[in-house]
Specification:
alpha/beta; Rossmann fold; two-stranded antiparallel sheet
Amino acid sequence: MTGRVIILNGVSSSGKTTLARAIQEQAKYSVLHVEMDKFISFIPNGDELKPDWFKVTKTDGLSPALPHIANGPKGEKLLAAMRQFVVKTAQSGLDLVVDEVCHAAQIDQYRAGLERCTICVVKVAASLEELAMRERARGDRLIGLAREQSDHLHIGIDYDLEVRTDLDPTNVIAERILKLVDTAKKPRAG
């Protein structure tokens, strides 16, 4: 038996981690939380924003200029390893909620690798005003990153569900996601 996988995809500060924890609390089965930020925390302190890991630049032509993060070669390898971990773990029968920031190509890779698993891809969003407020309140985020990511992150992704963490309570959203996963058509055994 393969696992169930919920992929929460959204810009920085959209509420993915809080939502993942609510899903863990409400699920009637054990759900592992795979958090992209935890994988990035494996990088030696101070190295994460070096160009070979994750390069930060400023957007051109916008006023004010917004930060943009691009994967360097080591960053790309780290995130590929995280995604392989998700696939292998789900294939082994464990249930996961994945806290991610990825584009259509990576979602397509997830879907291909998890074709024998129950998978639910969720767009996690909030208003730009709310995202900016959360970035400032957290104190550990690049200010403006959520706005920059919101311009391109979701292009070409066919989501199973779209949620707004600034409009609905987290526990209600978690319940909706779990219900969708529990009623999803189970994939055929291999």
